[in-house]
Structure formats: C-alpha cells, structure tokens
Amino acid sequence: MFNFKWAILILFIQSFSSADESHAIIRPINGDTNPEELGDVKWERNLDEALESGKTSTKPIFLLFQEVPGCATCRDYGHEVLSHPLIVEAIEDLFQPVAIYNNKKGEDAKTLAYFGEPAWNNPVVRIIDRNKDDVVERISGNYSKLGVVQSMILALKREGRAVPAYLELLEQELYSQAQGIETATLGMYCFWTGEKKLGALEGVIETQPGFMGGHEVVQVQYDPSVISYTQVVEEAQKAQCASQVYVGSEAQKAIAKNLVGNSKIAPLSRFRLDHEPKYYLSKTLYKYLPMTTIQATKVNSLIGLGQSPNEVLSARQIALMAYIQTHLDKGWKDAIGIDLMTAWKSIDKIKGA
If you average pLDDT over every residue of the chain, what do you get? Predict the structure, then answer.
C-alpha cells in the first residue's frame, strides 16, 4: 500500500542531495576534516564569495580544481603536495585559497565552465588575480611539490610581492633533487667548522660530517646549477677546509689536482657518519624543530656563525619554536635528519597529547 509520508520523505532526501554542494561545506574547510584530496589547506569553496570577502585583499587567488572524491592521483596530490607544512603555509598566508570540485553541479560547475576546465579531471591549479586573470601558466599534468612551489614564487614576483626565504630554499632543494645533486668530500682539521662554513655557501643543500681514511671530512651535497665543484673546493680552501680532497671521478681528480696539488688528493673510501651531525644545531632547542634538509643545513651554519636562524624559517616555524621553548615538559623529539612532514606530524601528536 502506498505510504504518502514515506513518499514525502524520499522527495525531501532527493532534493537535499541535488542541492548545490559548494554551499554545503562551511568556509573555510577545517584541515582536520578536509577530504583527503584537499590536503591540509583551509580552503574557501566559492570563488565569487571569496573575492567578495577579500575585497580589501591584494593577495592572488590560489585556485584548485580537484576531483572529490578522486582517483589515486588526486589523493596523492592531497597527501603529498597539499599537506606539506611549508606549502600549506605559503598557500594560506601568501594567497587566498579556493577549492573547486570538478565533479559537482551548482557553483562548482559554473566556475569550471568560466575557466574552461574539464570535469572529472586530475588536479589543476590556477593562480589568478582579483580580476580572475591568470598570473602564471596553469599547472596541469605536473603533480609535484616543485611544480606548485615554482608557480607560487613566479606569481609572487609578477605581482611585485616579496618571496620568503623559506620558500626560495624549498624551491632550491626540490629543484636540486629533481635535476640531480652532486657531492664533494673534503678533509679538514675540524668537521664542525667545515659544516658551519661550507653549509653557508649558496647552492649547498646538505653537509654531513664524518670520517674517511682516518680523517675528519665533510660531505657537501650541492646543486651544480648554482655552484660548481671548482667553486666548492675553492671556497673550502679559503675556509681552510680542504687539507685533503677525496675524489670520486676523473673529472673531480683533474679539478682538485689543479687547485690543491696531487699530494692532497685521495680516492673516495668508506664514509662513516659522525654521531653528532649538525653539531651547532644539535646543541640548541632548534634541534626539535621540523625543517627541510636545506633549512637544517643553513640553520646549523647561522647558529655556528652567531647569527639568528629565523631568517631562513617560516612564520609558523618561528611560532612553533616559541611554543617549544615555553613547553619544555612536552617531551620533544630530536628532528635532525627526520623528514619534515614526518617530524611535523610527530610535533602535532605531542602538542595534542
């Protein structure tokens, strides 16, 4: 027998399900409850409303077109790119983030059509100005951290805005990882001094102190597009950190022979890492702070040289450091050598405990 009350209930549920979903989510989305495809960024969900609410803002719009729920590519983009703490900070603080679902009706579909973006697609990022014009070329088919960081930096420069040091360092580290990092191994009287002085060089990504052939050495990993092997050895000589040069190729041997002489050259042998890498950093509370590899290298140098490390840290890292300093009873864990995303999750757990 037909039940009129059940019919009304079914119609009500159907009408609710077809409603405009871009308004069903409260702006901004809380990072703890985001769909996994959106990562940890606190997004606004309606472009026109975002422009209206930010009338006094001059920030560019970071516009994400994303399939939610989405495929593995969409989920990975949320997990890896949109959850990296420094990328999240840059998107939220330097831009106005807006997420548009490319598989929904209503306002999402209208925005999709306005920009001519395909539905049911992998992630696309557009950085636009307040007039909805592209500031940089749209990111499509590039699902890497490097792709979005480079686009953010270029957009900030084109808009005449300052690029924070932490973001430039992140770009340098990601770029060198993608293009290839090279290594110079240098013997010296004190590898703590070597880490301090060589880690400060532009283009040096990481330093590792240890032993080779019974001597103290520093392995210097550097970006060859920024600094050459010749320049690394020359700077090491100036800093009195090249009493021995350990070479791993004929090309390195030829360069080292010309710079330091044949008697100071030795072939690479087994490297044994010292038990106190980043010595100057390890003697401060900054050892608990999650950092990228290049940040830790630069912070170690700055502390060793008697300078403030804050110049290479983000605002949120500085705030977190202040929290650590005032909550020493929390049982913080050493973050030196720990991946930034892993270390940040550990920090969140300790703070929430």
Answer: 91
